[in-house]
Specification:
- The complex is a heterodimer of chains A (154) and B (94).
- With 154 residues, chain A is of the alpha/beta class.
- Chain A has one domain: 5'-nuclease (Rossmann fold), CATH 3.40.50.1010.
- Chain A contains 7 helices and 6 strands.
- The longest helix of chain A has 14 residues.
- With 94 residues, chain B is mostly helical.
- Chain B contains 4 helices and no strands.
- In chain B, 80% of the residues lie in helices and 0% in strands.
- Chain B has one domain.
- Chain B starts with 8 loop residues before the first helix and ends with a helix.
- The chains are: A alpha/beta (154), B mainly alpha (94).
- At the A-B interface, α1, α2, α3, α4 and α5 of A face α2, α3 and α4 of B.
């Protein structure tokens, strides 16, 4: 089963929209077709964002219980790493470091991220969610998400 | 059951203030907090046994009803993520 790291935005998109590509990917984890990799740091970031006053103000039905159950189910379904060693530094965007280091620690096959700014400076459609084949630091192969989801489903 | 816990000074102050507001002895107030927290934990555990689609349904209905575009939602999450990051860094700096 492929091991996959989702970044925070992908987890948030998945939580917010049932028909999003991100939610379909999360369903793959729930169906046991992929192994989601998570760390305490990743869950803490998702929790922080979902608990922000501006988010709660927009979505009043997002309760502490929904957030708690979402995080708990994520943890239950995942390969969970409590403390991830810091193997990689990314000063340009320190907030992305935990995801890269998690991928390294779990030997993830894929990282699902929202943009490709991580690996090069070329322009990409920022709304396009992409799988980056792992390890990206060795061979930077990019694939569009939909074909990969299709491959995983079939 | 009797247990002994050391509370940080700010928590101790807050607990004493809240107990006084509620008109409860400190011990009764702390017991009610533990009961409330345990019940909440149980509800979360029960909900977490359900599929994501079920857990998240009320939130997703909220998002749909808001009429927010995908771009708008992304923008909201990105801003919240930056704010949360800034808050974490400020907290870490003390």
């Amino acid at each position: 089963m492929p091991r996959v790291v989702f970044d925070c935005n992908v987890l948030l998109q998945a939580a917010a929209r049932e028909r999003s590509v991100a939610a379909k990917c999360l369903n793959l984890a729930e169906s046991g077709l992929i192994q989601l990799c998570l760390s305490r740091e990743v869950l803490a970031e998702v929790e922080d964002v979902l608990n922000r006053p501006e988010i709660r103000a927009h979505f009043p039905d997002l309760s502490d219980e929904i957030v708690g159950a979402f995080l708990k189910r994520l943890q239950k379904l995942s390969m969970f790493v409590r403390l991830v060693p810091k193997e990689f530094s990314y000063p340009r965007d320190e907030d992305d470091e935990p995801y890269i280091n998690l991928a390294v620690a779990t030997g993830a096959d894929l990282a699902l991220v929202q943009t490709l700014v991580l690996v090069d400076n070329q322009r990409h459609d920022p709304t396009l969610t992409l799988f980056v084949s792992w390890p990206p630091l060795r061979s930077l192969g990019y694939y569009s998400l939909r074909p990969l989801v299709y491959q995983l489903q079939t | 059951m009797t247990i002994t816990i050391d509370l940080p000074p700010d928590v101790e102050e807050s607990v004493k203030t809240q107990a006084a507001k509620e008109g409860l002895p400190l011990e009764d107030y702390v017991t009610s907090l533990v009961q409330e927290g345990t019940k909440r934990r149980d509800r979360i555990d029960l909900l977490a046994e359900k599929p994501f689609d079920e857990i998240l349904a009320p939130f997703r209905r909220n998002v749909e009803d808001s009429g927010m575009s995908d771009e708008g939602l992304d923008g909201l999450f990105t801003t919240a993520r930056k704010d949360a990051s800034r808050a974490r860094k400020e907290k870490a700096r003390g």
